[in-house]
Write a structure and sequence with these properties.
By secondary structure, the chain is an alpha/beta fold. It has helices at residues 18-23, 25-32, 34-47, 49-54, 56-66, 68-82, 88-109, 123-131, 167-180, 196-205, 238-245, 281-302, and strands spanning 117-121, 136-140, 161-166, 188-191, 209-213, 222-228, 231-236, 249-257, 262-272, 321-322. The strands form two sheets. The chain has a seven-stranded mixed β-sheet. Helix 5 (56-66) crosses helix 7 (88-109).
Length: 323
């Protein structure tokens, strides 16, 4: 599981709880129904991306019409992101863009990068961090596509990314990758073990980028209330606490989908925990989470159909631990 990662086989995935996984309608279907995924992979790879995308319309329409909870969550989010009442077309586009990014995984995992028009914003910023050779944390969100990072190995050849996730999720991702391409490589650091922190440190010391999605909790942990899109939402401290304990820089990453075959990958400096003054760790973590939420909001405003949280992200604070 901890094999070296080819720069062209980069995948960052999410530290989900069981509740979040069951609410992510298409992600759950994709990971649990391997037979359907294999059929879709065969159709898409044999008949082409254009033919494969035809199936996305009935799939998106079905879940939009018959998944009331996901539809309501999408509506509430889009009302905030669009700063107006979301229309039925807005909702459909949100579902369709999610389905599109999942469908494109089939091609990205099979290295069909020629099918996509991918622009990288902030390339020099991450190159500069990599040049220092100390490794860094790459914090993303459930926004757009993380598999699209696979395509940039040719432009940033020194970029090596390891994933952090719970073992249960790692097994699901392994099954998903095997269904699409049995030769797809990955580097996974399992969380929840005594030596997890040591393994993360080893990767960082080797100059590897450690990727995490930091917009969902790993479970029972401290949460920080932050204003997001006009209301208070809760963000987990865990990812940033790990970066602070290991004294590493952090960059934000988003591979936003722009429609058709177009993606835009953003790398933005987020925080630097390399030299935290004594007694200032908690403040530094708080500031990093605030900046992280601000970057998410910027991208939600600019490309609102890319944030794939199909559940009530602004759930009551009393259902979580807060600091």
């Amino acid at each position: 599981m901890n094999q070296p990662l080819n720069p062209e086989t980069i995948l960052v995935t999410e530290p989900d709880t069981k509740q979040a996984e069951t609410q992510l309608w298409l992600a759950s279907k994709e990971r649990s129904n391997m037979s359907l995924l294999r059929i879709m992979s065969w159709i898409s790879l044999k008949m082409g991306r254009s033919v494969g995308r035809l199936f996305l319309h009935p799939i998106s329409a079905y879940f939009l019409l018959f998944s009331a909870a996901n539809r309501q969550a999408s509506c509430e989010y889009l009302n905030r992101a669009l700063a107006r009442r979301a229309t039925f077309l807005d909702l459909y586009r949100h579902f369709f863009w999610f389905a599109s990014t999942i469908h494109d995984r089939i091609y990205l995992i099979n290295k069909r990068f020629d099918l996509f028009d991918i622009e990288i914003v902030g390339k020099e910023a991450i190159r500069q961090q990599l040049a220092e050779g100390n490794g860094l944390f790459l914090m993303g969100a459930h926004m757009g596509s993380f598999e699209v990072i696979r395509a940039i190995g040719r432009q940033i050849p020194d970029l090596r990314v390891a994933m952090t996730m719970h073992e249960e999720n790692a097994q699901k991702i392994n099954a998903m990758l095997a269904a699409i391409n049995p030769e797809a490589g990955q580097d996974i650091i399992g969380l929840g073990h005594i030596d997890s922190m040591l393994k993360v440190r080893e990767r960082l010391d080797d100059g590897t980028v450690v990727g995490m999605l930091a917009d969902r909790t790993l479970g029972e942990e401290i949460m920080t209330p932050i204003n997001l899109l006009g209301d208070v939402a809760l963000f987990p401290n865990g990812p940033f606490r790990m970066a602070a304990l290991l004294r590493r820089p952090v960059m934000f990453m988003a591979g936003v989908y722009l429609g058709g075959n177009r993606y835009q990958i953003h790398f933005q400096p987020l925080a630097d925990f390399s030299d935290i003054p004594t007694g200032q760790r908690a403040i530094a973590i708080q500031n990093a989470i605030t900046t992280y939420a601000s970057l998410i909001e910027q991208h939600c405003r600019k490309t609102p159909y890319n944030w794939f949280n199909f559940f009530d992200f602004w759930r009551p604070a009393q259902t979580n631990n807060t600091q």
